[in-house]
Design goal:
With about 325 residues, the protein is mostly helical. It contains 14 helices and two strands. A hairpin with a 2-residue loop joins strand 1 and strand 2. Helix 3 packs across helix 8.
């Protein structure tokens, strides 16, 4: 049991930090611009495909740098020549526009790379084991993912709270007219924020594309869970997104690994649940079978008892 719990915790930590890498960009865009970008997971997918293509030409490490930058450029173009014009029509128009971007990017990816998964693999320089726990190796690439994710969190926090750039960005959000009067180009700031957010999604795709599978359905697989993380942590809170990612990652991973049910828990606490009990099928339903819906159950609970999320400042 100790071995099972240890590996559930480690796998949950890795998965949770991957969720944070993807959700941090969306949180940044919403906190600074008030835009819920439906196409965020599509930028994540674009990052994975661009990294695959670049890695086949010049290797993984150049792709690790170039692919997120290219995704950021695409994000900047989307904001500059799309979102900036529909912003005056309100949030519904912005949501519809980003929803349309989802389909455009999906079809472009299928047109260029096809509908089958591509052979995007872990680089040889990271394809080894760091250490062994309970005679089971811990891959170096997982450690690399954790390092990048924690580095991303530290960088975002320091830039937004401790630098002049962060001050200008927050001022442009809260007092755009005053920031403009002081000589700051507020539309350019918003374009930069959107580009940074989509670039972070692209970086998540670079990291996750070879850890999972790079295929056209990867955006639809990660998109819903990312919105759960953002709302659960609190709209606009980077720290909330971190904690929400870790909680959801650990809970979902542990649920998949643990062969227990509510009946086992109740009986362990002194109850008496048998197969003849009313709704026995529900009581004996194993956690592993409901693991995919646990994040959404947590979302419902957080919206009922704390609508602002764990650390949010806006109503969800």
């Amino acid at each position: 049991m100790a071995q099972l719990m240890m590996f559930s915790l480690i796998d949950g930590l890795v998965y949770g930090m991957l969720l944070f890498m993807l959700s941090s960009g969306l949180t940044l865009i919403f906190s600074m611009m008030g835009v819920l970008n439906f196409a965020h997971a599509s930028f994540y997918m674009l990052g994975a495909y661009l990294a695959y293509q670049i890695s086949t030409l010049v290797g993984f490490w150049p792709a690790f740098i170039i692919a997120p930058l290219l995704v950021a450029v695409v994000g900047a173009l989307v904001q500059r020549y799309g979102l900036r014009y529909v912003h005056k029509y309100g949030h519904v128009a912005e949501l519809l526009f980003t929803f349309g971007v989802v389909y455009v990017l999906d079809e472009l990816i299928k047109l260029v790379w096809g509908k089958l998964p591509v052979d995007y693999v872990i680089p040889p320089s990271l394809d080894f084991n760091l250490f062994t726990i309970f005679e089971v190796p811990f891959p170096a690439y997982r450690g690399f993912m954790l390092l990048v994710a924690f580095g991303m969190f530290a960088s975002l926090y320091l830039v937004l709270t401790k630098t002049r750039i962060g001050l200008v960005v927050r001022a442009s959000l809260s007092f755009p007219e005053m920031a403009r009067a002081l000589g700051h180009n507020v539309p350019l700031v918003f374009t930069g924020v959107f580009a940074l957010g989509t670039g972070l999604a692209g970086l998540a795709g670079v990291i996750a594309g070879n850890y999972f599978i790079t295929e056209p359905g990867m955006a639809w697989a990660m998109g819903p869970i990312v919105f759960v993380v953002v709302v659960f942590g609190g709209l606009g809170s980077i720290a909330g997104a971190l904690w929400a990612s870790l909680i959801i990652g650990v809970v979902q991973t542990a649920a998949v690994a643990l062969p227990y049910s509510l009946a086992d828990l109740i009986n362990g606490l002194g109850g008496s649940i048998t197969h003849s009990t009313f709704w026995a099928d529900l009581w004996f339903l194993e956690l592993s079978r409901i693991a995919p819906i646990l994040p959404y159950l947590l979302l419902i609970l957080i919206l009922v008892f704390r609508p602002k999320g764990l650390m949010g400042t806006r109503e969800s």
